[in-house]
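Milestone M4 deliverable, item 7.
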Amino acid sequence: MRTTRNRGLTAVAAGGFALALTLAACTPPPEDSPAGPGDDGDRDLAEGCEAFEQYGDLSGTSVSVYTSITAPEDQPHIDSYTEFERCTGADIVYDGSREFEAQLPVRVQAGNPPDIAYIPQPGLLQTIVRDFPDAVVPVGDLAESNVDEYYDPSWKEYGTVDGTYYATPLGANVKSFVWYSPDAFADAGYEIPETWDELLALSDQIVDDGGTPWCVGIESGDATGWPATDWLEDVMLRTAGPEVYDQWVDHEIPFNDPAVAEALAAVGEILKNEDYVNAGFGDVRSIASTPFTDAGFPILDGECWMHRQASFYAANWESADPDVQVGENGDVFAFYLPGATTDESPLLGGGEFVAAFDERPEVQAFQAFLTSPEWVNAKIPEHPDGGWVSANRGQDMELYASPIDRLSAELLADDDAVFRFDASDLMPGEVGSNSFWTEMVNWIANDKPDQDVLDDIEASWP
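Output delivered:
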């Protein structure tokens, strides 16, 4: 998830922003590109707005955007719309809510949907499309042509429901990372583990040395539980392999299949091991009440050694200490969550998708803008300390200030990478953003047995 998922920082890198504007000014649309949604023929353009001519004159219009991305992580998004607003005349009205997953269906059912929604789970998109026919507007020609040009075809598949293309990609993230303190590791003589067995051996060594290796938190408002589903998904890729993972996602094997039980047991070797968790917060049960946004912070105090969380977690460190440096030689960095062997490098990731609930020209234009390299290259510099990544192949990789983000973007663009999208985000909403979350909370908070957890999730599959 997810999103949800707190992404971004409020600072602006002035030099990077200037470069983004230069890129926008120097990248006019091709002559044979589709006409913009608000195209009104020849008109005077403000300086540097050539790339925005395709959207037409949208003066006096507004577009409402509803998302799970809240303050302070919302500001980079808001700032990234500046040139679209300046060059088209449209006003983008941003509304972030931690209750997004629960409230979006309510708003749609009440006939009061936003113009645009950033949906962090393709499974939730499928549920909304099927439960509320005709509420979501199919993607327009300009946005679809951008996706065809700049994204791997799999991203289009994630936004397609029953053969109709409904949602375009927004941000992306790589989840297979473990955050740690390079200095603490060096002082203790610990080395980065390269296999799963080495990861467990390192955890045992930390315990033997008097430390607690892991700190974990899965609280996330109405979305509480999603970080635990990420643990199971990452381990499922490692114990069962990508083909069985796909079968699990598509329900070609049941949720309580032995392959899933094996993966959950492997997760339990860490998350339900009293010697391993939960440094800085309490016992195993404290994982359920610890906000995922804060869960890695004990690393800074030396109470915790490792925290498994996605690339976007880079944005959270500043909340603990504005002076925290993220990097290989900084206060915190991350290493790849290892596979069974050094030859196996599965990569779990996720992202948000942009769905439109109105076909007004300004709404269609804004959705298309969010698929463009101009938007991506304006958005990246809004994160000088990291925490946001795109899978857009038209992006400028040199704009990434964070080595974690640059590595993530390169991995996402690698055709040879064994990448799989977050399973719960692809599953039906009744499972992916409901029973899967709640049962993983029960597994942690109430010590619910593994098999009962898997059986109850399987029983909820529509």
